[in-house]
Structures are given as C-alpha cells and as structure tokens.
Amino acid sequence: GSACRNVQRNPSFSTIDSDDISYFRDVLGDKSVIQDVDRLSSANIDWMHKYKGSSQLLLLPKDTEEVSKILHYCNSRKLAVVPQGGNTGLVGGSVPVFDEVIVNVGSMNKIISLDKVSGILKCEAGCILENLDLFLANEGYLMPIDLGAKGSCQIGGNVSTNAGGLHFVHYGSLHGNVLGLEVVLADGTVLDMLGSLQKDNTGYDLKHLFIGSEGSLGIITKVSILTPPRLSSTNLAFLACKDYSSCQKLLLKAKRGLGEVLSAFEFLDKHSMELVLSKVEGARNPLPSSLHNFYILIETTGTDETYDRAKLETFLVNSMEGGLILDGAIAQDINQASSFWRIREGITEALLKAGAVYKYDLSLPIEKLYEIVEEMRLRLGSSAKVLGYGHLGDGNLHLNVSTTHYDDNVFAQIEPFIYEWTSAHRGSISAEHGLGLMKADKIHYSKSTEIVRLMASLKKLLDPNGIMNPYKVLPQSMLQDK
Ligand code: FAD
Ligand code: S2G
Ligand code: ZN
C-alpha cells in the first residue's frame, strides 16, 4: 500500500528484552502479556491491511493503574508505545510502524456510572461503541456518535480520533459531547479530568488537547460523555437525484424544512452504489434507474411518529414537485431502514473487496465538494474507479479511488494533487479520520507552520522522549531536536 516508505526507526528507542517481559508479567499477570504470534500478527496490521508493524509485544492492561505502570516503565526504558483500541482506524495510526509495544485498552471496558437525570455516562475507554449504545437504549439515552465501525471501535479510540460519523450533523463534535477524560501521560502521570459538569470554566480546558490526539499525547483510560435522550420516532428516507446541485439544494431545504428533527444527511454517487451492489451480500438498490446519479439518506429523529412522518412525507412531495429529487422511499419498518443504511455503510467494505483503496477524507465547502471527484475522474480516466460519498450534512467528502491492484502511477496521479486542491479550496485533508501515519507529513496542507510548531512543542512537553505513537500525526522534521 501507500504507507510512508521514508520513515526511519528512531535510534533513541530501545528494543524489548527478557527483563522487560518479566517486568510486565509481574505487574500485569501472564494473561495480559501477549507474545503469541497469531494474536500479535492481527494486532500489528490495520483494518484495511494497508499498514503492518513488527511489534513483539501486546499488553492488555486491566485498569488505569496498570496503564500508568506500563507507561512509566516504557518511558524510563525509552520503549516506544502505540495505544490501540478497536483497530478500525483508517490512517495507520493504530498499529506499530516498527517494533513499538502495542498497548490495547480493550480489557478496560467497564461502565462506571450513568446519571439518569442528565444522561452523563462515565465509562472506561475500552468500551465498544455499540455496547455502550445498547446499554443506553435500556435507559432511554443514546451515544451521540454513530459510525459503521461501531461493532469494534472503542470510545477511547473514538475520542482519540475525534470521530465524526453519521449523526455529527445532529449531535455535533465529541469536543462538545465529551465532558471529561482520564488520561495517562508518557511518564505514568494520571490526569483526572473526569469531570461531569456541563459547565466548568476554571482554567484551560486541557481535555480538548487529547480529543483527536490519536494516541500521541497520552492514553485515554476513562471518558465522561453527555448522552442525548433517545427519542421515540426515527424515520429514514432514501432519495435519488439527477445531479450534485440538486443534492446541495436538498440539504439546504432539509436544514430549513426539517430543522431540529434532521439527524443524518448522507450522500453517495452512482459509482458508490454500483460498487456496493456488486460487492456487498444482500445490498439492493431501492430506487434503480439509469437517471439516478446520486442517492441521499435523510434521517429524522423526533418525539411524535405521526407528526414526524407527515413532515418527512410533505418534504419528499415538495422536493419531488420542485424537481430536486427524481424518486424517493421512506422506510416502512426497521428492516427496510437497515437495508437503506446497509448500502451507505457497505461502501467501505465494498472498496476493500474490490482491491486497492486510496482513501481521502476531506472537509470542503459544500458547493465545491463534488468538483474534486469530477477532477479526479478526469485525471485517472479508465485507470481507476473514483467514488464520492459521505456526510454531506457537515461538508465531509469521502473520496475513494479503487483499483484491482495497487498502482504507483495511479497514486502519483492522486497525491499531491488532491491535497493541493483541498488546500487551495481551504478545506481539510482530514475531516474525521485523523492524520495517523498516512498523513503525518501532510498537516501543512491544512495548518500553518506556526500552529504546527506549537503542536510540536506541546507534544515535547507532554512526551519528552517521544515514545507515544511515534512517526504519526506530526511531521518528523518538526519533532527532531534542533
Ligand atoms: P483504533 O483504530 O484502535 O485507534 C485509532 C487511533 O486512536 C490511533 O492513533 C490509536 O493510537 C489511538 N487510540 C486508540 N485508543 C486509544 C486510547 N484509549 N487512548 C489514546 N489513543 C488511543 N471514522 C469516523 O470518524 N467516521 C466514520 O463515519 C467512520 N466510519 C468507519 C467505518 C468503517 C467500516 C471503518 C472500518 C472505520 C470507520 N471510521 C470512521 C474510522 C474509525 O472507526 C474511527 O477512527 C474510530 O474512532 C477508531 O476507533 P478505534 O477504537 O478502532 O481506534
Ligand atoms: C464513512 C468510512 C471510511 C471510508 O463511511 O463514513 O468514514 O472512507 C467513512 O470508507
Ligand atoms: Zn465517515
């Protein structure tokens, strides 16, 4: 794959020896010290099988105290560490580049408390997102984020990547929903910022430093998050449009016409639809027609089934009359709703099955957002498929190029052009997936040198030996001691 080839192992890092293993066995117990080849091989490779490390050691701490001991020890021994959660990250951030020790918090999956009046949930970082949502469903609440990886990703990883997802347009960013964190720094210091107050203006709000830090500033061990009430009525419409201009007009109409009940607004082009239909078991297009170039999913969430449904039906009829949509269907039941979602959530899986994936996750001004897909199609011609889909509601395009086998020439046609184009349109080269290893040296397309320099000084302050997830997020050049 296109993993950065020009990264050298930092010579200041030690390699693990038998004394280290016996230390970890003493502190953690044998079951939490994994050297088994098979378990190590899956922990060394990312979800897309694009990035592969050569770690000889996977540690599974059971609580904050053990994480603190691990980091304190690794810091003193200058052993590099890669924090790992569900390992569903898409930028190579969750796996070692070389022999970094993998610290997976998956065993730290206890729910600590739920304040039933306010909906404030406190849990350990290793809780799987879907499990948290299932727990909350019984209590009349829901997780404010929802992504295709919910079955494996952990809330610690979600916070570390500042994950966006399908409900971002309704519930906003984790920077808004996360009320507190417990974080362990490289030297083992435990930062208890696990407040659960919705308002606390006492000094700098340091938890925000760790949200989106991708494991480079410390290990998140506990999360306090505000969970919204689970409302009684959810409706989902699947619509077909003839062109991108209709999609963006539909978004504007939805924001105005559906307003507060709009909970998701996703789009996919016909190339994405074709790939899902060809690669994903059971995927079926509810609105098949050669005239349909784009598909939109609109979800509404409210408190009155009849009222909400009528509102959505009126919206569809108006949109049809106005020519914004060519066809539309409202899910009649939960099964049909999940079959609609299956199409949108199946694109990532379809891409993997189709061969090599060149994945770009861009924030762009909505009126320009699809231009880059068309530009890329012109550049690549028949050498590759170009898919455009994503969270149109918050201006997040997932542009994915697909070839049966990885091809350097295709890659050269994509980068740096796509980053330069995004930068020229003042977009972000990483809307929600983070920079990881894939884009560690690309941050300058979206952040000024002064800002990156300040980030590097904060990184050095918090992790002077640079052992936390080295080679990722920030350019090596900014971290080398002058
Ligand atoms: P991992 O992949 O294990 O790690 C991700 C990063 O966080 C790494 O840098 C790692 O070092 C760090 N990290 C993990 N746990 C901790 C911790 N406890 N403390 C400190 N650092 C830690 N992402 C989106 O934003 N929106 C989407 O809609 C979306 N959809 C997806 C759909 C599919 C099918 C897949 C496979 C992925 C998708 N993703 C999406 C990407 C990925 O799921 C998210 O980035 C997710 O938040 C990663 O969580 P994780 O637990 O798997 O973390
Ligand atoms: C999504 C998943 C990753 C990708 O589906 O919303 O975040 O680019 C993406 O397929
Ligand atoms: Zn996404």
Please describe what this structure looks like.
Keywords: FAD, Flavoprotein, Oxidoreductase. Catalyzes the oxidation of D-2-hydroxyglutarate to alpha-ketoglutarate. By secondary structure, the chain is of the alpha+beta class. About 35% of the residues lie in helices and about 20% in strands. The protein folds into four domains: about 1-105 and about 460-480, Uridine Diphospho-n-acetylenolpyruvylglucosamine Reductase, domain 2; about 110-225, Uridine Diphospho-n-acetylenolpyruvylglucosamine Reductase, domain 3 (2-Layer Sandwich); about 235-345, Alpha-Beta Plaits, CATH 3.30.70.2190; about 355-445, Alpha-Beta Plaits (2-Layer Sandwich). It contains 18 helices and 16 strands. A seven-stranded antiparallel beta sheet has the order 13-10-12-11-15-16-14, sandwiched between helices. It has a five-stranded antiparallel beta sheet with strand order 5-6-9-7-8. Helix 10 (about 270-280) crosses helix 13 (about 345-355). The radius of gyration is 23 Å and the shape is globular. The structure holds flavin-adenine dinucleotide, (2S)-2-hydroxypentanedioic acid and zinc ion. Zinc ion binds near residues 164, 391, 398 and 432.
